[in-house]
Specification:
This is Tetratricopeptide repeat protein. With 277 residues, the protein is mostly helical. It folds into two domains: 66 residues; 207 residues, Serine Threonine Protein Phosphatase 5, Tetratricopeptide repeat.
Length: 277
């Protein structure tokens, strides 16, 4: 939470400085506003995020020297925000606009194209349209060599999304394959961002739980839990999920005392979250 507050302040100070200049760079201002929107999206304040993301798009569209790639990115961000707000009609509209524009700009398996495929996969997955979601995630899977080429966070996140979707479809063994690749990439490129490493460990732990592999399940779920205990002072969604999964693991394997301890910690955190809302 502290890092987010610092990031908000940096971008807000940046906008104030840019607006005070005699010659304003509106394209840069639009970019900064978009970054604030993404921060709100990350912090799950979706309505605030949407207002900033729409404002950044409107400003960028009016600029004569607008970069079309940037516009496509803004479309995609707005679409994902509408998806979080369950406004599926507008979500699909903006994600498709982004995808079509990106196809005009880039060819083949460019990262921006892969990002659009990921967004479309997430959209249809959210609607439980398994066949359509799989259509887009399959295209990502076909580009697995491209995804494995470099150890960057963008590709690590795509691999994670594919793995989570395969898990949702019941293809647990293949899900582990993608989640493990994502986990290794995240550890390589983002050593200091322990939150996403903990998220990966949690996802893998859930997979092994479904496979009734007690030893590996508890190994990864405990790793996720211990990271969050050290890293996050604030109780948040992924930490809550980690605690819930850990409690479920202990319950399924008959360790009811530890299950109760995890559930109690989960409930205490949930009370704190509700008070902050």
């Amino acid at each position: 939470m502290g890092n987010l507050k610092r990031a908000f302040k940096i971008f807000q100070d940046s906008i104030a400085m840019q607006l005070n200049q005699s010659e304003r760079n509106w394209l840069q201002i639009a970019f900064t506003i978009n970054q604030i929107g993404l921060l709100y999206l990350k912090s799950r304040s979706y309505k605030k995020a949407l207002s900033y993301l729409l404002e950044s798009l409107n400003i960028a569209k009016k600029c004569e020297n607008t970069n079309q790639r940037l516009i496509a990115n803004y479309f995609n961000n707005i679409g994902l925000c509408y998806l979080k707000l369950s406004n599926y009609e507008k979500a699909l509209k903006y994600i498709n606009q982004s995808h079509e524009l990106r196809k005009q700009i880039f060819k083949g398996n460019h990262p921006d194209i892969l990002d659009s495929l990921n967004s479309l996969g997430l959209f249809y997955s959210d609607l439980n349209e398994k066949n359509l979601a799989l259509k887009y995630f399959d295209q990502l899977i076909q580009n697995r060599e491209k995804l494995n080429e470099e150890n960057n966070l963008f590709k690590a996140n795509l691999l994670n999304n594919i793995g989570c979707y395969l898990l949702k479809c019941g293809n647990t063994k293949q899900a582990i394959e993608y989640l493990q690749k994502s986990y290794q990439k995240r550890k390589f490129v983002s050593e200091k961002n322990l939150k996403i490493i903990a998220e990966s460990a949690n996802n893998i732990g859930v997979c092994y739980q479904y496979l009734n592999d007690k030893e590996k399940s508890i190994q990864y779920l405990n790793q996720s839990h211990s990271i969050f205990q050290k890293y996050e002072q604030d109780f948040h969604f992924i930490y809550a999920t980690s605690l819930s999964n850990l409690g479920q693991h202990y319950q399924e394997f008959g360790d009811y005392q530890k299950a109760q301890e995890s559930l109690k910690e989960f409930q205490c955190g949930a009370i704190i979250v509700n008070k902050l809302k």
